[in-house]
Structure of Oligopeptide:H+ symporter:
Amino acid sequence: MAIQNPPVSQTKSFSTVFLIEMWERFGFYGMQVLMVTYMVKKLGFAEADSNLIWGAASALIYATPAIGGWIGDKFIGTRRTMLTGAVVLMFGYAMLWIPTNNALFLYVALGVIILGNGLFKPNAGNLVRKIYEGDEVKIDSAFTIYYMAVNIGSTISMLLTPWIRDYVGQHYNDALGWHTAFGVCSIGLILGLINYFFMRHTLAHIGSAPDERPLVARNVLGVALGGVAIIAASAYILRNQGVAEACVYLAGVVILGIFVHLIRSVEKSERAGLIAALVLTVQTIFFFIFYQQMSTSLNLFAQRNVDLEFSLFGMPIFRWIPEQFQSLNAIWIVILSPILVWIYNTLGRHGKDFSVAAKFALGFAAVAVGFFMYGLGALSAVGGQISSWYMVWGYGFYSLGEVLVSGLGLAMIARYVPARMGGFMMGAYYVASGVSQYMGSVVANFAAIPKDITDPMQSLPIYTSLFNKLGFVGIGCTVIAIAMLPLMRRLSLDHALADVPPVPPVHNEDL
């Protein structure tokens, strides 16, 4: 790559990516926090349809980064692809800013957002890796800060956009409130792009090989036509739930089939690691089914069956908007992550750190407790509404499970998968995560409330029935994970003895 003159510090280069990532996550989570309720309350969709549409969008959002990373590495460059993704996302959110209730327009806007996310996410993370390439101590610290950007941006936007929607809606009109809130997501990307423009020189020497060469017209045209195709295909899938369901389950079967084929065909020394990776990937898929409840069933539950007033010893403290409860996830992760890192480091110094498999078991136990909290809250509900504090502690346990399970997903790939399969396996991991997000929306529909039910006393048992069942499923996952520990120990030992070259350390920028 080109050498800067004068040289640019790693910190300045990192700050440029850090800030645009923060604004990108601001826009994405500001949109996500409102999307399901927007479809239900403004577009008049049934809860079941809204859950499935967002589930399909989530699946596509997780799948497309595999394509975006390939485009950045091979065709137009990592840096250029990240910037293109940010611009596409800006236009996607700007489309939601337009005051229309046309459902097809929504699907196209989501298609643009899916494309933008696919271009942006993998390449922003790759730039951070390239900035600190060869310095594993600094890269771990950099991704810790980078991860903080994700949660800072998401926390602020998940608190802000619902408030903007309500404020504008009350002072002007309801439609303007919704679309102004989405518009703020676009403004976040505009601010991120303006900041990038003034700091772009700090990344002039960072990127992949195509970044150093003039753009090739054929590559640009191919990417543009491919982008249009992704938008059109995404809109078609979102509009046709039968197609979405078929695509999702087909992807799941294909990934499982490829896993089985690889396990059967690889060298014996590599087999133990692949089996271990498959076991942990399946467990991660189950976690994402739980994860998807945050933007679907738990979000709609907060609309109907949560007392929005936070009180302490009978004294009101403050009041939240239902969608704002989703921000508890990011808040808890920021609180819990450094604590867990300290615990891991302390145990590691004494040679007593838990295995990845053991952390998965603990994570599922925490998720189970989190879902049981909502059922527990129902026992003392007043007028069909539980105390907001049960949501705080429910999200707390759930977020602890997220850090223990999902946060270790890519680390697991790096540990157990041979280096020559790393790219494919990380792509398969993301696609599998997307499949499970759709499955999570299917699960959320077990608590989809018919439009004729408006009484909180009637909807409360429907929601808590689902949450209690998910709690028991979490216990089942915990028991299975514990039962698998001896097998995982044996597989880990066999993998270690085989001395298979690992994938270079990878990081999950979201979790």
